[in-house]
Amino acid sequence: MEAPPIKTISSRTVYQNKWSRVREDVIERTDGVRGLYGVLDKDPACIVIPLERTADGDFLTLVHQYRYCVEGSFYEFPQGGWEQGEDVDVEALARGELREETGLSAGKLTKLHANWIAYGAMRQRHHVWLAEELTQGETALEAEEHGLTAHRVSVEEFERMIFDGRVEDNCTLAAWGIYLVWSRGR
């Protein structure tokens, strides 16, 4: 394997909380030129596609919540992470996020893929799961999820929501694309 074109000379944490860490790395390129990288480190996360197949069609459960960083409310698939480091049980994480945010439990959970989220600036792995054979229970929202609501929509409505601005989350869009490619290959 070829040597990476950038090596880390030094690294220091400039900010940290229970969800993330920001570090500045002094780097050196193969031509000897040094530079600075700012990196946001976050523990692994999951995104879950809750899919219900019925005689009336296919339905998805989305969550709607306010996203402070972009000052807007949007629909997206249930997703999130637990602050447990790289060794988190990602299936337990997926089941937990689904239950917390929607109250749903999955009789069948299939891992479809794992992606890097915004790897130009952040180091976080996002595991994509398909949840089927759903049963409804109670939600268990965290304080950071204040105001979050769950909504059952048809697949057709969800796809309209992508183009009318109600769904703008890149992780939701990527997960849906992964599901579509995966389902074609079945």
TrEMBL record:
Q: Which Pfam families match?
A: NUDIX
Q: Does the keyword Nucleotide-binding apply?
A: no
Q: What GO molecular function annotations does the UniProt record carry, in alphabetical order?
A: hydrolase activity
Nudix hydrolase domain mapped to chain residues: 41-175
Q: Which family does it belong to?
A: Belongs to the Nudix hydrolase family. NudK subfamily.
Its Gene Ontology biological processes?
A: nucleoside phosphate metabolic process; ribose phosphate metabolic process
Q: Which PANTHER family match?
A: NUDIX HYDROLASE DOMAIN-CONTAINING PROTEIN, UDP/ADP-SUGAR PYROPHOSPHATASE
Catalysed transformations (reactions):
GDP-alpha-D-mannose + H2O = alpha-D-mannose 1-phosphate + GMP + 2 H(+)
The scientific name of the source species is Terriglobus roseus (strain DSM 18391 / NRRL B-41598 / KBS 63)
Protein name according to UniProt: GDP-mannose pyrophosphatase
CDD domains per the record? Answer: NUDIX_ADPRase_Ndx2
Q: Per its Swiss-Prot or TrEMBL entry, what cofactor is needed?
A: Mg(2+)
Q: Keywords for this entry?
A: Hydrolase
Tagged with keyword Transferase: no
Q: Which InterPro entries match?
A: NUDIX_hydrolase-like_dom_sf, NUDIX_hydrolase_dom
